[in-house]
Design brief:
Blueprint (H helix, E strand, L loop, with lengths): L21 E6 L10 H9 L15 H4 L5 E3 L2 H7 L5 E2 L13 E2 L2 H11 L5 E7 L8 H15 L35 E3 L3 H5 L42 E2 L1 H21 L4 E5 L2 E2 L22 H7 L21 E5 L1 E4 L12 H15 L18 E5 L11 H5 L4 E6 L2 E4 L14 H18 L9 H21 L7 H4 E4 L7 H5 L3 E7 L8 E7 L9 E3 L2
Parallel strand pairs: 1-5, 1-6, 6-8, 7-9, 8-10, 10-13
Antiparallel strand pairs: 2-5, 3-4, 11-12, 13-14, 15-16, 16-17, 17-18
């Protein structure tokens, strides 16, 4: 007779009004011999994934592998127990010395670890497959990229592969990023494996980067702290780096994710790592205006302009390939931390760290406030170095200062490393401040949560008044907390719902339209949201933004 002890995790419930929940989509395997906890089964069953209408009977291993299923993770211990995040083979063949397989951490696992380490409390995980060996043969990279990218982003179109159309009415067929559509409480989307998928073949370095002493200082730990990783000579492996072809694929993939969120979930922020470049970049990179060749490792801001990632470059870049958006935040550079020695070159993807800081900011100060600031207010004490290392202090006119206007930048400051810019990639400066975009996202998620129960209510004066008053009370709370500008509530926001927001055709079609105008405290303009509640058709009933 044997006793088996299983950690009992409470049944998680979704709260759409939360602004701190991150969804991670990527490659990670299940832990061998660990059964799926009863609470996770209950959660999936309640959502219809086991016995309900979304069950996919064609994939018998889907439940055991937790593959393409939205798993709510309430703490690092739960994630560590369910997934073999630290068992990615380096080569896939036995080591010539030890005879065993050498392993490193997965980038998805490292990002989730950093999310919880920086103060995140809840994540939603979408595992799309097992990780591949890190040192993959060059000949396999191109074909493997065509196979892996659609698992993350089914909407992406690649040579030899057509995009997989998204059907909101068939959750059983959703893959990868498509699941975000049904995750009402998700406020952030992260794709930590994307730079690795787009990278050129990793090259083992003959000289590992020097060990950097970790800074001393107090770092507030969580109740479920991730164990310190063991240095396994992975510093000698080069972290993922992109050539010009890789950047083109990365840009198109990220633009595809941006377009998907713009159409289906405009309340979700896309947080992504800006990949490291190969040094030096090939001469295929277009020259600067004066004909000179700009290397990304010396001026990433100029390089992004050259490839047309954030700005229109005449006819060189199509609009649908731009990454400029009020709902995209890029993080850079790639840091070395006390826990990242289980990764190649000891470099962690910065999107997990940024997502954790945004979650902590939402929980402690309010999501509408900047997450950048003094290092004493941020859990970055274990950050020792970064690649590339930004210039100290970000002097006026420096390339790093220019980059910080469009990219969330980690940089050394007098008291230690800090997040020095909390910005989106938007072209319009009114939408550059990250807090303004997160405020809009919170309003949209809350409006949707309140609007969904009203879809079967009679579309008349009683419903209009109820929704208007409910939204006004909600916005008064934001105004009193300092999220909205204006000396009075009337100056801070306006909610309209009635005959002046709907035509007779809208009423006949069963559409209810609410118009909200708000003045974010740190925005130079007033922003108007148009929310439409319609009869269920090809979309899940609820309020949708049309701005």
């Amino acid at each position: 007779m044997s006793l088996v002890f299983e950690t009992a995790h409470p049944l998680s419930t979704a709260v759409a009004e939360r602004a701190d929940v991150a969804c991670f989509v990527g490659f990670v395997a299940r832990r061998q011999g660990v059964p799926v906890p009863a609470a996770v089964l209950q959660q999936l069953d309640a959502a219809g994934w086991i016995k309900g209408p979304w069950r996919n009977s064609e994939d018998d291993d889907r439940l055991e592998k937790l593959r393409n299923l939205p798993v709510i993770i309430d703490g690092w211990t739960m994630f560590d127990g369910l997934f073999a995040w630290n068992e990615r083979p380096v080569t896939g063949v036995p080591d010539s010395v030890s005879g065993g397989i050498a392993y490193c951490a997965t980038y998805l696992g490292a990002a989730v670890r950093d999310f919880f380490l920086r103060g995140g409390k809840r994540a939603i995980l979408i595992s799309v497959g097992d990780p591949w060996p890190y040192l993959e043969a060059s000949a396999d990279r191109a074909s493997s990229r065509r196979d892996r990218l659609p698992l993350l982003l089914p909407d992406v179109g690649l040579e030899g592969r057509a995009p997989i159309p998204f059907d909101p009415t068939e959750p059983g067929n959703w893959r990868g990023m498509h699941h975000v559509y049904g995750l009402s409480e998700a406020s952030v989307l992260c794709l930590p494996d994307l730079p690795d998928i787009c990278a050129s073949s990793p090259i083992p370095s003959t000289v590992p980067p020097p060990l950097v002493p970790m800074p001393e200082g107090f770092l507030a730990c969580s109740d479920e702290e991730a164990a310190a990783s063991i240095d396994s000579d992975l510093r000698a492996l080069r972290a993922p780096r992109l050539d010009t072809d890789g950047y083109a694929v990365w840009q198109e993939a990220l633009a595809t994710a941006r377009q998907y969120l713009a159409r289906y979930r405009r309340d979700v922020l896309l947080v992504a790592a800006l990949p490291l470049p190969q040094v030096p970049l090939p001469q295929a990179v277009p020259p600067d205006d004066d004909g000179s060749q700009v290397l990304a490792h010396t001026d990433m801001s100029a390089f992004l302009r050259q490839i047309g990632a954030l700005e229109h470059q005449g006819s060189q870049v199509e609009t649908d390939k731009l990454l400029a958006s009020a709902f995209v935040q890029l993080a850079y550079p790639w840091p070395r931390t006390a826990s990242s020695s289980d990764l190649p070159e000891g470099l962690a993807p910065p999107d997990g760290i940024l997502a954790g800081l945004l979650a902590t900011n939402a929980l402690t100060r309010g999501t509408f406030r900047s997450a950048a600031g003094d290092v004493s207010q941020q859990p970055l004490r274990d950050l020792a170095d970064a690649e590339p290392r930004p210039s100290w202090g970000l002097g006026p006119g420096s390339p790093d200062a220019e980059l910080a206007r469009r990219v969330c930048l980690f940089a050394p400051m007098p008291g230690g490393w800090s997040l020095v810019s909390d910005v989106t990639t938007a072209q319009d400066e009114a939408w550059r401040f990250g807090g303004a975009s997160r405020l809009m996202g919170t309003i949209l998620r809350t409006a949707r949560a309140w609007g969904e129960p009203a879809v079967l209510e009679p579309n008349g004066l009683h419903l209009w008044t109820h929704l208007r008053r409910s939204l006004e009370e909600f916005l008064i709370g934001f105004w009193q907390a300092g999220a909205l500008g204006g000396s009075s509530a009337a100056e801070a926001f306006q909610v309209r719902c009635g005959p002046d927001t709907m035509t007779q055709n809208d009423l006949d079609a069963g559409r209810l339209i609410v118009e909200i105008s708000v003045r974010p405290a740190l925005s130079v303009e007033q922003i108007t949201l148009v929310l439409a509640l319609a009869n269920p058709g090809l979309s899940v009933p609820g309020l949708r933004s049309a701005f």
